[in-house]
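Case study.
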Amino acid sequence: MSDHHGEDGLAHDPHNAPLSGPALRVKALESLLLEKGLVDARTLDEIVDTYEHKVGPRNGARVVARAWTDAEYKKRLLADATAAIAEFGYIERWAEDMVAVENSPTVRNMVVCTLCSCYPWPVLGLPPSWYKSDAYRARAVLDPRGVLKEFGETVPDDVEVRVWDSTAELRYLVLPERPAGTEGWSEEQLAAIVTRDSMVGVSRVNLPAGMRP
Ligand code: FE
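After joint prediction, the assembly is written out as follows.
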């Protein structure tokens, strides 16, 4: 297996630090699959491109912004998120069902996968490393308020925190609260302020600095 300018066409700088264990294993598997002709380099590039550019939190942000501006869409989203998200046509088909859970002044929702790292990738892309960490997976359930505090969110005692455990079949998207001061904003303007963390439920959506009341 060549580590420099392999079949994948990528230049691997020999001066770079050695690859980590998992990266090395991925590289080894990729080389093997290419060598055996089981996948071709272009297909792999397309998959990587999909994850890097086509699926990501911007997709989810558009779903949230539409739900904020279109009451009928919001109803559909909360009733059948899989179908409502499919209206955007991000992914032709995917195996998991989606459920959207709505935050309110009295309820905060937070998503975790206690078993591994199930994540609503068609709407949020690849999970951040903290989402996959043992600490988050264990503590999100045992001490959700404590975890939220570490994300800078102090949740008052009279606000209920609901934790949703994702599975291979079911993935959750948090519909955060629309921030005050965004009345009259367009769907595009709203989508621009919706963050990944707000859709996992560990943060609220804030107005950009300088626009806060
Ligand atoms: Fe999982």
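Observations recorded in class. The domain at 56-200 is CATH 3.90.330.10 (Nitrile Hydratase; Chain A). The chain has two domains: 19-55, 56-200. We will return to this complex in the next lecture.
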